[in-house]
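Why does residue order matter? Because the sequence determines the fold. Keep that principle in mind as you read this record.
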Amino acid sequence: MFIRKKLNKSGSTSIQIIQKVHRSNKVIKTIGSSTDSLEIEKLYQQALYELPRIYGATLFDTPVQTPISELSNDSVRVCGPEVIFGKIYDYIGYGELAEPLLQDLVISRITHPGSKLNLARYLTATGKNGISVYSIYRFLDKLNSSLKVIIEDISFEYTKKVLGGQIGVVFYDMTTIYFEASEPDDFRITGFSKEGKHQNPQIMLGLLVGKDGYPIGYELFEGNTFEGHTLIPVLEKYTVRFHIEKPIIIADSGLLSKTNIDQLQEHGFGFIIGARIKNENNRVKAQILALHLTDGQQACVDKENGLKLHISYSGKRAKKDQFNRERGLAKLEKRLSTGKLTKANINNRGYNKFLKLEGQINISLDHEKLEADQKWDGLKGYITNTNLTTQQVISNYNNLWKIEKAFRISKTDLQIRPVFHRLKKRIEAHICISFMAYLLYKELERALTISKCGISMNVAIENINKMYEVKTEENCTVRLRNNNIQQQIYDLVNSMF
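Structure:
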């Protein structure tokens, strides 16, 4: 490729980037045109800047003069994360913050996840070494105190744009984030851990997302907070702050409580919440079992106070319920046969509900309870106050897995935990960075899905981390030529963002 000054019939001069294709000159990009000599020179310098960045220029392209043999390894740096995710970062609107270190923190959370100390690897690989860990910590303090609200506003506006300007349905769920710390404090408190880290101090993270898992907002709570008490405060905060018109709330059965339902109705929210059908009163349970649903069938049972209980039956779910129960019972029977069933075992929840205690020593399986429990295999319920059909209720609820995927991405791909920070403000800043990184991750994932290119996120990130550029002695930066996968990602991102 080379730069051409083309004299036009109008008397102006166009600056173009040209590529030789089968002995013909193909115009790759026209930088601009002018009749002013100074402006023409500016356009030419701009072309010199853009030439190496178009379609993976190589060391053999002009204007590089330094022989390859004279270049050292120190001349090579990773450029893929900045080229790809930097483009998405700016497109979302985060670039308006003009905080280069923030961009590095967010992008490294995707491409080089780990501790803030691990960030040094990213900075070194991308030629930005020299930033100390202490300067990073000072920036985290600044992020939490002055930038967090702006970041949340930018994120929400972008989510709103992606979702077509209207948010009619939101999904809410909670997770726990544990800390590698020996002593708890007022914020990091031991409690019920969804990750099985009951001995570790933790915090609770409530995440509110829209359709397809696009983030709306999040809230942090003390580690011993009951998740059922978090729903209303988070909804109140973000629906008021972002002027969201009473969306339908979708949450799993962990958020099901009479208090939550009463408050949702009191504030005028529609909702769909996973039901615990075995805990319903005898009248409702009798109605459910009287339906005698078969595979794929659905029905609706009226409850009190304008609530409806939608029921579905799945043969696949029934087999899974049966398998889980039989596996649990096998373990229980093994303990019974060995005589090693202790008081602690008996008090545990789960399949011990099928134990029958007679007197003080005679313990056996209660077959009547077993037979009664089998009647519920394959049945699932959903409580709502909306007028949606059963199919619409179930379809909306089934999208709840996307918020579970959001947590999975955050905990695995972005390695949001374990968290090594101690100060609350730095913990909050760490979550904020992960929140931003999740949105960038979602956008590249969306682009790959739309293009149907067959490139997974793992493969994409692996190839992005292998995109390099070289800085010559002439102080010219030239990108090495992309491989096929890298070029697909590069073209896709530049066409969509």
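Confidence is low (pLDDT under 50) at residues 57-64.
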